[in-house]
Amino acid sequence: EMPLLDPTDPHFVPLAKSFYDLQTKLMGTDHIYNVDTFNEMSPSSSDASYLANCSKVVYEGIRASDPQGIWLMQGWLFQSGFWKAPTVSAYLGGVPNDGMVILDLFTEASPIWSRYDSYYGKPFIWCMLHNFGGRRALGGNLTQIATGPVEDRVAPGSTMNGMGITMEAIEQNPIMYELMLEMAWHETSVDVTSWVHTYARNRYGFTNTMITQAWNSLVEAAYQYHYGSAFFGSVHSSPQIPKISLVRLDLEDLYPQRQPFISGYLQPVPPPLGDSPTLGYDITGIVPAWQSLSAAAFGVSGELPGPLSYDVVDVGRQVLVDLHSDLVVQLNAAYLRAVRDKVNSHAEITAVGTSLLAIIKDLDSLLSTDPNYLLGHWIKTAKDWATSKDEKRQYEANSRYQVTLWGPDGQINDYAEKHWAGLVGDYYYMRWQLLVDTLTSAAAAQKAADAQAYGSTLLKQEQAWCENNNTYNPEARGGVRLVTKALLAKWAVSSASYSKVAGMIVNKEDLQFGTAMRTRSIDQLKILCDINPKCMAFTSTGLLKSAAEPRQAASGVDLYVKGK
Questions:
Q1: Which residue, 84, 93, 318, 491, has fewest beta-carbon neighbours within 10 Å?
Q2: Residue 553: left if φ>0, alpha if ψ -120 to 50, beta else—which one?
Q3: DSSP codes joined into one string, 480-507
Q4: Would you state the pLDDT for residue 513?
Q5: Helix or strand or coil: residue 34?
Q6: Taken in order 62, 63, 66, 71, is the CA torsion positive or negative?
Q7: Eight-class DSSP state of 168
Q8: Per residue in 308-363, pLDDT tens?
Q9: Strands 124-128, 160-165: parallel, antiparallel or unpaired by DSSP?
């Protein structure tokens, strides 16, 4: 822990003035000073006079150096449960309204200004945060961005006086940032459908029916919901041994650490990831978007426009990540059947594990076709800053740790995960290979795997990778259209023979203990059922079955029975 000087300490204002004086001498000033005293930490007291005095002396420190100084503060601290109306009012009351501007950091999903009377008169900036750690998943609320800033600016009592983007990383979901930055020029709300069609045409330099269909699917499937409802998948998640006590196999149960930036901090907490229809994100809708966007790319003669290549890879990446997560559920179910229920699952766990690893390699091949998805470029850029051999080694290690363990022992493991070629095909593959091997051995012995020994081995492998200096290609290779065509045929389309029985289900426990596959694509469900030797049928609601009998009527649900 690092001690901080309490704002009420008599040395605070003189020290602050010295700091601002030196900063101004070195860099000049625009009279705006960013200070965040209690960001993701709580004050030592909730006493109103103490809180008012804390903010008062911070402001005095700024004004002691610059009589025109304005305090710029993130409103993120008020997401914490410590802050209520009386404490927020007291803290902000220590500064005059014209002496502070507040960044309402996460307005598009968790606005603060509307909870606390527009910051009790302080002007605020309407901000889109959208992304944490550079984590990649298709998602964001276009409708909220197209309407929210316009409506909130003229809302009764609003002190909004600007707009901004406050993402932790911008290199994902470019459509969200394009619209947000454009909204500063609009006095009225924007029609999302019309805007998206114009965006696609401008982005690619042309448009056609396939592009229109693709973006219609994407908007409906992924871009009408808060980013916390997007599906990040499990490819990047440090694989864990499932607990024998698990009743359900949702990824939230298997990997409860997958969203550290949401759990327990935001108020209200966005909905957890899952297969609940209330989340909005439609995994199945991403598949036709990939098919349509790919068809548009296949129809381009000559070199593919860079943004189209980027999007074909990005949407295909999401499809493979989504399908990988369904295979993870199957893998863990097969393991639990073996060690908990003492069922011979060797063939099942072998087949599912093999496909799970194959999809990781296929994802890596897809990512390697576009220069925006390369670990090699990231490492090379870091090393290029070095002025000595030792610096080069240190910068490479830092670049590896930052996108993996973060700290040397996984202090914020995978917080800044990236879907990059090299990282996926090497680091993530290595981890999943260890899990598959461990679960396969445990299932064969019908004995629970030693989670502690596994975790120790996994961490050592992760650390060794971070300290390694093997090279990764910094340039794209393979051809996006060629690789995409092969992967569409493998993971999006199935010619397998299944008999459809309308309005029927199998009255027998499914293979995943009540956890449905996230995809509802019939072709993909065929692929998943074909992979699993125990699967004899599946329902249109995503439940894989070990038998096709006994059956019972079920309105709105269809049964698909594997052919002989």
A1: 84
A2: beta
A3: HHHHHHHHHHHHT-----EEEETTEEES
A4: 87
A5: strand
A6: positive
A7: S
A8: 999 999 999 999 999 999 999 999 999 999 998 899 999 999 999 999 999 999 99
A9: parallel
